[in-house]
């Protein structure tokens, strides 16, 4: 590890974190702008909490993420087990390709084509259309997260269960699903991440009256700078940072413990 | 059992994957009052749209190349660290901050009274309008894509059998030779997926061009958004969309990784 690579790593990390810390720094600025820091205040945090419209938007975002990830995990779990059970190679690879279409498609294409779809089926733009759209793009991600854990598990367990007289239903509910719980959880978390982070698809299918945090920030940013956005961003950053460090140290400890025993 | 499992999944596939693509193709042959026409295609092939498409490709190309130049060495450096998963996590954490928030931060940083300009001023240089330029567009796009590019490259470098690298040293390869003749060729799959993850979205970024490029950079994504949501000309928007899908398929075929073809 020479100095050149160490300084390169440092520069990139500063580049990646600078904008986030920059927002956080000015979220405490009494000056009301992101240009000169005049004094310390927590006013913007207070006004975020007191801003009822904004709190509704935050609640919407969380609700959409939880509901859509829940449905997507169920559909994706079924899909992954179905793909796992298919024997014909050609059918499997075709279905997998179709599965991946929405993962590689640009957001604008997903948004625009779903907008057409909803208008044809007469689904009113609003919470329903946003949740349906989020389920749509989360399912393939869940499938891809669950498939590897299905292949990693010992397939003899499934055969043994069959031999011992378990019905197909019991093989799935008593053997397969308990074995791949971590994969299912990872799929749900990934769907949650995609849903919380989505802007473009939601922007197309949200209509008037319903909005998620991304769409709201877009509207606020187009109007100009308000430090309330900085305050929200700082809160999100602290939450994300805490969760990821807890996750890292918990999983790190597990690995180390596994090594010693 | 298989049928019960298959039903919701296949239903999702038909309604949300297959049907939307066909609807988009069908709409691309429609004019604003719903009559069948080829006019949208004629318009797309006119000079304006071709120019915009080339422009969009050029920016996507620049963004991908710069992101790759930064990300490859970064992935290499991280793969040699002691706590590599920790440093990888540090690189990935910013992706969990909403993309809009990061873009918004750059509005403050690059603005005429922003921090970058005050640094320039201290060095006795003139203030320049950095925001609302193609420079801003590329910087923010590269910023957003770096972690996504690092991840697949890191995975493929990390997966290289270390014995191969040691063998090349034993056979007299210099550090540089080991890098160019062993490590880079063996990590090409990761580079390919990184390019896929960057190039296709870079063709269609629309909110970036609205927020930080001041509409100076028009991408295919901007055109689609404008046709659908501002002009309400879904036919023309779908036509641009059909071309974007074709370009996407082309990029996917060019950068197809070996794993997928098996």
UniProtKB/TrEMBL annotation, chain A:
GO CC terms for this protein?
Answer: plasma membrane
Q: Where is the ABC transmembrane type-1 domain?
A: 58-247
Where can this protein be found? Cell membrane
Write down the membrane topology.
Multi-pass membrane protein
Q: Which domain of life is it from?
A: Bacteria
PROSITE patterns from the entry?
ABC_TM1
Q: Which SUPFAM superfamilies match?
A: MetI-like
Question: Which GO terms are recorded in the biological process aspect for this UniProt protein?
Answer: transmembrane transport
Q: Which family does it belong to?
A: Belongs to the binding-protein-dependent transport system permease family. CysTW subfamily.
What is this protein's record name? Spermidine/putrescine transport system permease protein PotB
From TrEMBL, chain B:
List localization entries: Cell membrane
Q: What PROSITE patterns does the database record attribute to this sequence?
A: ABC_TM1 (PS50928)
- Give the protein name, as stated in the record: Spermidine/putrescine transport system permease protein PotB
Keywords attached to this Swiss-Prot or TrEMBL record, sorted alphabetically, are: Cell membrane, Membrane, Transmembrane, Transmembrane helix, Transport
Source species, domain of life: Bacteria
UniProt GO BP: transmembrane transport
Asked if the keyword Transport belongs to this entry, the reply reads yes
Recorded hits in InterPro entries, A to Z, give: MetI-like, MetI-like_sf
Family to which this protein belongs: Belongs to the binding-protein-dependent transport system permease family. CysTW subfamily.
Instruction: Tell me the organism.
Output: Phocicoccus pinnipedialis
Show the GO cellular component annotation of the record: plasma membrane
Q: Which residues cross the membrane?
A: 7-29, 57-79, 86-115, 135-154, 194-213, 233-254
Annotated membrane topology is: Multi-pass membrane protein
User: Where mainly found?
Assistant: membrane
Q: Which gene encodes it?
A: potB_2
ABC transmembrane type-1 domain sequence ranges: 53-255
């Amino acid at each position: 590890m020479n100095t050149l690579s160490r300084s390169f790593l440092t520069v990139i990390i500063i580049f990646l974190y600078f904008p986030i810390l920059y927002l956080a720094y000015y979220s405490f600025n009494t000056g009301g702008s992101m240009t000169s820091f005049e004094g310390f205040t927590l006013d913007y945090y207070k006004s975020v909490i007191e801003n009822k419209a904004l709190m509704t938007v935050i609640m919407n975002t969380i609700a959409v993420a939880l509901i859509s990830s829940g449905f997507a995990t169920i559909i994706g779990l079924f899909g992954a087990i179905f793909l796992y059970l298919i024997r014909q190679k050609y059918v499997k690879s075709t279905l997998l390709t179709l599965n991946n279409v929405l993962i590689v498609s640009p957001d604008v294409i997903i948004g625009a084509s779903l907008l057409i779809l909803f208008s044809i089926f007469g689904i009113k733009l609003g919470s329903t259309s946003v949740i349906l759209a989020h389920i749509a793009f989360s399912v393939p991600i869940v499938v891809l997260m669950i498939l590897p854990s299905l292949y990693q598990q010992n397939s003899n367990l499934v055969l043994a269960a069959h031999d011992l007289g378990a019905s197909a239903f019991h093989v799935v509910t008593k053997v397969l699903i308990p074995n791949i719980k971590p994969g299912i959880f990872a799929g749900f978390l990934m769907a949650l991440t995609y849903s919380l982070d989505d802007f473009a698809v939601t922007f197309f299918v949200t209509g008037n009256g319903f909005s998620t945090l991304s769409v709201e920030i877009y509207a606020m940013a187009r109007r100009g700078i308000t430090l309330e956005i900085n305050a929200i961003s700082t809160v999100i950053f602290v939450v994300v940072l805490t969760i990821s460090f807890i996750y890292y140290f918990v999983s790190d400890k597990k690995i180390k413990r596994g090594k010693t025993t | 059992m298989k049928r019960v499992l298959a039903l919701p999944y296949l239903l999702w596939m038909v309604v949300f994957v297959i049907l939307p693509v066909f609807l988009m193709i069908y709409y691309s042959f429609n004019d604003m009052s719903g009559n069948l026409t080829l006019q949208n295609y004629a318009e797309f092939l006119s000079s304006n749209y071709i120019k915009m498409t080339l422009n969009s490709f050029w920016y996507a190309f620049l963004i991908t190349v710069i992101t790759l130049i930064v990300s490859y060495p970064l992935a290499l450096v991280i793969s040699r660290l002691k706590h590599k998963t920790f440093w990888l996590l540090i690189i990935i954490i910013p992706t969990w901050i909403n993309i809009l928030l990061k873009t918004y931060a750059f509005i403050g940083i690059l603005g005429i009274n922003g921090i970058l300009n005050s640094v320039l001023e201290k060095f006795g240089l003139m203030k320049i309008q950095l925001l609302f330029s193609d420079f801003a567009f590329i910087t923010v796009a590269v910023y957003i894509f770096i972690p996504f590019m690092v991840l697949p490259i890191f995975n493929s470098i990390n997966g290289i059998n270390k014995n191969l690298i040691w063998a090349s040293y034993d056979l007299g390869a210099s550090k540089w030779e080991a890098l160019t003749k062993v490590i880079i060729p063996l990590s090409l799959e990761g580079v390919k997926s990184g390019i896929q993850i960057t190039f296709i979205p870079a063709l269609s970024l629309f909110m970036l061009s609205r927020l930080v490029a001041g509409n100076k950079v028009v991408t295919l994504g901007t055109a689609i958004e404008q046709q659908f949501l501002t002009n309400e000309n879904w036919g023309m928007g779908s036509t641009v969309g059909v071309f974007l899908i074709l370009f996407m398929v082309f990029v996917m075929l060019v950068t197809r990784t070996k794993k997928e073809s098996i």
